[in-house]
């Protein structure tokens, strides 16, 4: 099963917004590579929630609850419905990720502007360990 990371600005839609919503569509993605990553997501896959711009840290784990469907505002793009799974015990900052040599090839560093990206199983396990969160 694949793992992912999705970015959102916490002042626009943060972890607390998703938690309050329960389930929410991931929208406003207007990059074709990010869209293709969303199309590859399967129901039940786990996704890190990353606060971009403010905080710059992974704060929680989401679950894909509805695979991609057309974005009603622009059918060239798609939405994916996400649900809160668990908040990380300790957020993992971008600085921590950059300083860990085991994460030197993570897409968050290599493709820093991409808002939806794959995460390898090894990267997933390392980040869960850094966050003191049990792998789910």
Explain what the structure shows:
- 29% of the residues lie in helices and 37% in strands.
- It is α+β, with helices and mostly antiparallel strands and 136 residues long.
- A hairpin with a 5-residue loop joins strand 3 and strand 4 (57-70).
- The protein is globular, with a radius of gyration of 14 Å.
Which terms summarize this structure?
136 residues, alpha+beta, ph1033 like fold, 6-stranded mixed β-sheet, 6 strands, 29% helix
Summarize the structure.
29% of the residues lie in helices and 37% in strands. The chain has 136 residues and is of the alpha+beta class.
* Count of individual domains: 1
Number of strands: 6
Overall shape: it is globular
How much strand content do the residues show? Answer: 35-45%
**CA distance, first residue to last residue:** 12 Å
Biggest sheet architecture: 6 strands, mixed
| Rg for CA atoms | 14 Å
Q: What class do helices, strands and sheet pairing give?
A: alpha+beta
CATH class: Alpha Beta
Side by side, the strands of the main sheet go 2-5-4-3-1-6
Average pLDDT number: 96
Percent of residues in helices:
25-40%
CATH superfamily: ph1033 like domains
Number of helices: 6
Q: How does CATH name the architecture?
A: Roll
Query: Which residues form runs of ≥5 with pLDDT under 50?
Result: none
H/E element order:
EHHEHEEEHHEH
CATH topology (level 3) name: ph1033 like fold
């Amino acid at each position: 099963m694949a793992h992912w990371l999705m970015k959102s600005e916490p002042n626009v839609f943060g972890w607390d917004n998703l938690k309050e919503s329960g389930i929410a569509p991931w929208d406003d993605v207007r990059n074709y590579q990010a869209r293709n990553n969303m199309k590859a997501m399967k129901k039940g896959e786990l996704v890190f929630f990353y606060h971009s711009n403010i905080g710059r840290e992974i704060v929680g784990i989401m679950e894909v609850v509805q695979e991609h469907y057309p974005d009603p505002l622009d059918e060239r793009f798609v939405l994916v419905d996400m649900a809160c799974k668990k908040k990380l015990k300790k957020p993992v900052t971008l600085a921590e990720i950059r300083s860990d040599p085991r994460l030197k090839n993570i897409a968050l560093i290599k493709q820093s502007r991409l808002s939806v990206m794959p995460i390898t199983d090894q990267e997933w396990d390392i980040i869960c360990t850094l966050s003191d969160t049990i792998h789910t």
